[in-house]
## 1
Amino acid sequence: MDDALTLSLVIPAFNEAARLSDTVERLIEAAWNGLIDPRVTELIVVDEGHTDETDRMAEALLAPKFPHLHILQLQRDSGKGAAIRAGTNVATAPVVAFMDVDMSVDPAQIPLLLGAIESADVAIGSRSLTDSTIESANIRRVIMGRAFNVLANAVTNVGLKGTQSDFKAFRTPMARLLFHLMAVDRSAFDVEVLWLARQLGMQIADVPVHWSDSRNSTTRPTADSVSKAVNRCRIHWRMNRPRIPALIVEARSGNRPIRERVLSEASTTFRTTDPVLSLPQDRSLLLLPLCNPAQVNGTATRLSALSNKLKVNKRLVSYAELMKMKPLRWADMSPSARSDDSGSTERRHRSPREAWRHRQIDLELSSGREV
């Protein structure tokens, strides 16, 4: 049997055929040295509407080493944020990470991200930490990067030193939710994602990295920093974020042990890449971010067919509703948690006041807008 995937690595690429052979050398070297295990790594190269042979080059260079390689082709260049969203949408491992194709951060440092994500929802590689090192002859790029980081923290109050880093990892359910809610597809998309993570109470870890400037980088220090600053200021005014397709799953009747057993059996069919919230009265809110209506309907039909004791209602959940539900009780749907006989999958307990407020939110969801 094949080993279960542990990491989905997303690499956006736009017209990279000329330099791809040089930049992916680090990735292949990390695999040869055992720092990345190709047997359990899903490599997703997102071709952002190329006008060269980026897709063919990626296939030729990476397929021999990475058996779980996917070349995802987009019709047009919609921005790096849109490309990473598309890659996250097809990711199947419990952790998804992304990095630039120029490999400014050596992929040999991926184990640092994976170590940090064990106790966090998001891990970011930061070149501003004490233990980080920077190797660059482009002083202007370094200064502009630091200036933008200061601006981003001042405007958003995320309190992180690596907001502009293109080396990040997420628990896949959290990544799907964040990229579904994300409104900025180009410059500053990653800052918005971190801001959303902070707003939703997710745990974020900083990881020191060694960063070396790529001579062939397509980044424009001044223009890109100004663009990021403008988009950063827009984020606070984007309140009409996409609603999230969701399913409220509950047992139709029975005493609490029966309800818990029915819901527990249903939860084993949930995808581990979808976020799940625990609701009062032994119910679950299965969020289906980035899913289209056909996928939502298919999931609802599959769950409803499991048992006549199971009730499944489709809903659209807004960002405002999620904010009202804070602190969010994420259910751990990882394979290790599912094999735990204790039956407890919640991330934290609530006080009586929090429980009362969540019952009010629960009533709103029950009478909310259907898909």
## 2
Amino acid sequence: MPDFAYIARDMNGQKVTGKISAATQRDVITQLSNQSLFPVEVVADAPASSFRSARRVRGQLMATTYTQLASLLRSGVPLLRSICVLRDQTSNLTLKQVLDDVHGRVQEGSTLAEAMARHPRVFNDMAVSMVRAGGEGGFLEDALERVAQFTEQQEDLKSRTMGALAYPIFLGTVGSSVVVGLVVFFVPKFASMFDRLRQRGELPAVTDWLLWTSDTIRSWGIVILVLAVVLAVMLRTRLQTEEGKRLRDLIKLRVPMLGGIFQNLAVARFCRVLGTLLHNGVPILKSLEISRQAAGNRILSEAIADASENISAGKSISGPLSESGHFPPTVVEMIAVAEESNTLETVLVNVADSLERQTARRLDLFVRLLEPIMLLVLAGVVLLVVIALLLPVIKMSSTI
């Protein structure tokens, strides 16, 4: 998680400054309020060190790293020595630099979670939160093994998804290239042939539209491409803001066909992390704070934050989760029953398993449907081009 520098006032009006690690500015304000401090200014802190990992590390390598670190610690090897061993044996330059920085910070007195949080492109929020909880609760080895399992599961799902999408992506790329080639290089050869029909006002509308599209791409193609790149950069910059990230997460939940898949994956992560933390004896409020960060979706995270407020007031978790409308009704019902029977940690893990199996099936079905849909779309576009070129030829032949 990033660091935030803050300026606040205490109950006596005295100025207080400092730094806090948190996911968002809103979380910083909440933490300050809990400390009876009134925030005046909260800004993202500039990195204290000159090194920040600029590249990501493969998920499978990170899962192996977590597993090896857990094994070393479980065998009685001190933390600093364990990090040195992992740093010396890895061949990945980025990971080597990151582990070296983590080792230096832990040696200076930082916790492992604080050192990991300095490298968000290598250690995600879920890993940092789990390690922080494991360090505070005395189950660091178990936390690292859980993080390794979560990472392996996510990488397995990602690899299966990319493998299944390889053919549709290839098909879409080749098909789009063929269509663009037809429009840019093949269609203009018929323009002079159809001039007489256009002058007489007898050129079919679909042919006229095709010729206009071809001329536009040939004349303004570079400009259109530059504008598209500029818009893409502007959109990406916008999505890096807190408001943009929230909008992106909302769209992910509402996009047709894929919205349910994104929702189930986020809910499954939340349930698994929360169940794991409760099983290891972490207090419910702390568990909810960590698991809402692990969900990976700000909309769901807000609903979970409301559930935390309910818990503080002595109420149930299931109420605000149901009211948010972003949690499946069956999941909310199972959580409500589990709260009454005091089996929440067991039920949450079972819910996560069920959602992941259901998501895998839905994702497989989506990919299977995607291939024929893309074939039909590409075939339709090519057919439209052919019809647009044949209609004037047929009209000229009948006139002759």
